[in-house]
Each structure stands twice: as C-alpha cells, then as structure tokens.
Amino acid sequence: MSSVAPAVPTSKGMLWTGRILSGLVVALLLFGASYGFLHPEKAREDMRTYGYPDSVSIPISTALLVSTLLYAIPRTSVFGAIMLTGYLGGAIATHVQKLEPNFAAPLIVAIMAWLGIYLREARLRGVLPLRS
To answer: In whole angstroms, what is the distance from residue 17 CA to residue 25 CA?
Structure first.
C-alpha cells in the first residue's frame, strides 16, 4: 500500500484562482510585516495597547515575514500555510481577548490562505478531499 496520496487534477481555473488568492494573502501579509519594520515606534505602541512588551514587535514582524515568504515559495507553501495559521491564530486570540469585533479579519486571511493553496496544490486535495 502506498503512503502517497493520489494527486487530484487541477484545472486552469482552479490553479489561477488559487494563485490569485495566494498572491492577495502574500501582498497583505507582507504589508503587515513591513509595518513592524518601517514604523517601529508605532508598532511598539500598538503592541503595548494589546499588552505585549515593546521587545516583541520586531520578533513578531520577523515571524510574519518568514512565514509569509515560506508560503510564497511553492516548495514550502504548505509549511508556510501551517506557520501562518499559528500566527493568525495568535492574532485572533489577541483581538478576542480585547473583545474587539475585528477578530474576523485574521480569520478571513487564514481561510483565504488555505483556500488558495488548496486550489493550486493537487497533492493537498488528495490528502484533504472535500468530498469522497
């Protein structure tokens, strides 16, 4: 018995829809990561608002940048999606802790990230079929 899941064919429409969704996610998250590097004082101030120490602004921005770059590279995109899921889960938890209604934004980005990779990666659809 083979341990490799069968690849489910990818249509051109699925492939391009996945690429566009993934591209939007990458652009959005790169913008978010750059915020921490280009506006360090504002980023530290925002971190204090959420109860984080000043010292975590750059490491958190770095984690987002690395995770986004891993997601953008086809060979490491599934690992990047897993890393982004953890990062965005932390963002959701932070917003929920402060009882902010915009906790849905990171959730939507996470869904878009997984949908984008699901549509463009046949091996992932073989492992996680939406129907049997």
So the answer is: 12
| Least trusted range by pLDDT, from 22-31, 100-109, 122-131 | 122-131
Selection from 43, 68, 70, 65 nearest residue 54 by Cα = 43
Task: Note if the pTM is more than 0.70.
Answer: yes
Are the C-beta atoms of 29 and 64 separated by less than 8 Å? yes
- What is the CA angle 86-87-91, rounded to 5? 115
- Banded pLDDT at 43 (limits 50, 70, 90): confident
- Give, in degrees to the nearest 5, the angle at Cα 21 between 20 and 23: 65
C-alpha to C-alpha distances, 97 to 22, 24, 65, nearest whole angstrom? 28, 27, 24
Local structure of residue 102 (DSSP, 8 states):
G
Q: Where are the domains of the chain?
A: 12-127
Q: Is the separation of the CB atoms in 18 and 118 below 8 Å?
A: yes
Residues 6+ apart with CB under 8 A from 112: 21, 24, 25
Q: 9-42 pLDDT, tens per residue?
A: 778 999 999 999 999 999 999 999 998 888 888 8
